[in-house]
Write the structure tokens for this entry.
Amino acid sequence: MKNLLLSNGFLSVIAQWFSANILALGREMRLSYLPPLMVYVAAGISGLTGIVGTFYVKEKLGLSAEFLAMLGFWMMLPWALKMPLGHLVDLVWRWKGLMVYLGASLIMLSLLIMIGLLGHTEAMAAMASIETWYVLSALLAPIGYVLQDVVADAMTVEAVPRVDEDGQKLDTEKRKLMHVTMQTLGRVAIIGGGVLVSVANVFLLRDAGTLPEAEKEAVYLLVYELALIIPLISIFGVVFAAWLQRRERKRFLAQGYSRQEVDTLLGMHAESPAINWWILGGGLVFTVISLGVGVSRISGGEEIVFGISMAIVVFLMWRLTDELEPDARNVLVGTAVLIFVFRAIPGPGAGSTWWMIDTLGFDQQFLAILSLVGAILTLFGMFIFRRFMAERSIAYIIGFLTIVGTFLSFPIIGMYFGLHEWTAAMTGGVVDARFIVLIDTALESPLGQIAMIPMLAWIANSAPEKLKATFFAVMASFTNLALSASQLGTKYLNQVYEVKREVKDAVGEVTIPADYSELGHLLITVTIIGFVLPLITILIVKHSRFRNA
């Protein structure tokens, strides 16, 4: 009888937790949240070509890990353009859908270039080198996603209603909860898109590693062709948002409200905000200098562009945060700094993946399975840690993630020095390299998105009226610049610890032999930096006048 009561009590606790953390999110879902979620789903589905792209670069292109890290820097740079683009969204709010259409067009063009490279290689090579086409495709896609993302971010603020169905103003705490729910659902949509593409990759890339070259390229081509659905989903989200807007307007007009009152109730821009020439001018200067440095290919170009963009973003943050009360400003700045340092930690670069493919024997399908496990557990982890995110400070969350992430990096370092060989011998081949990586991915994946949700909810809740897109864009630009800093750090580390994969020419002769002898030192250095920097930053912020959300 006692065991039965204990069992019932345990089941009751599980049921309450499930209701509070998972079912509650579904109950709080609103139809108005759906349009930005569709744009976020499209961003999540963008990972469909990730694994194919990795193998395409490794098998077809002679690009070094250092060059790929540098390319990654330029691919991240368009996200800093969220500043002028965000302000532009506020200025042309009624026509914001056009920016989504333009972004979708650039994404489609990027995919069509890759389809041309895989399906019509000789014709594409006759016009320009394969490497040039690949770099162009790699740079077009992030510009398209930035255009869509800056609109989606502003739409998440608009999606949270200011009034109830009768036009009565909602209280502040209820709207704050809605913002947290909206931002959580946004991350769920992105990761959910990742789950869908991971399942597709597991199916599409089965046995790809053993296929003849022609059949393998046909599989890669099919993946890129399927990816053409990405821009269509985001376009449909904007169309659906316009339909919802018209429906809400008709409902309030039927209740007797005037058109001007309806605009106020729906939080629409009755009039455009004043043009902020600091933001538009800063964005223009940033764009011109970035393009000039990129075209000139001067030494230290990435560092010059990063320094200028950081100066511009920090200046615009200072100008824009004047809209906030001093306490709110200190909280926002402290929170942004913590997030920046946490996201700026460098990684090992492409060499780590090449080593797993060449030395550990990971093929396309296994990497797809890893991606699927990571996406599913990230999604599940967001539900598990939902209350943890809501109740803990950003400093606590980042400290927790830093310590856990450091411990989870040890198995990969251990495998470089033969850990998987020892565990396989001790367990009859059960705990081999694939087993260790699967478990490590399962434990690490839920941690990836946790730090961003409280930050996004705080930004959305703090955004001044009429400047929601601008405010969101400037703050997001600052935290996104951290990823550019991460790519720069990755490039520097790959210069110190050089990792080479095997490169063959057109007739199959090895032109560059594989060399992973310095990868172990690279992995250890990345782990030490990732542990020390965030914890030092937490201590500095804690003992300064700034605070964190």
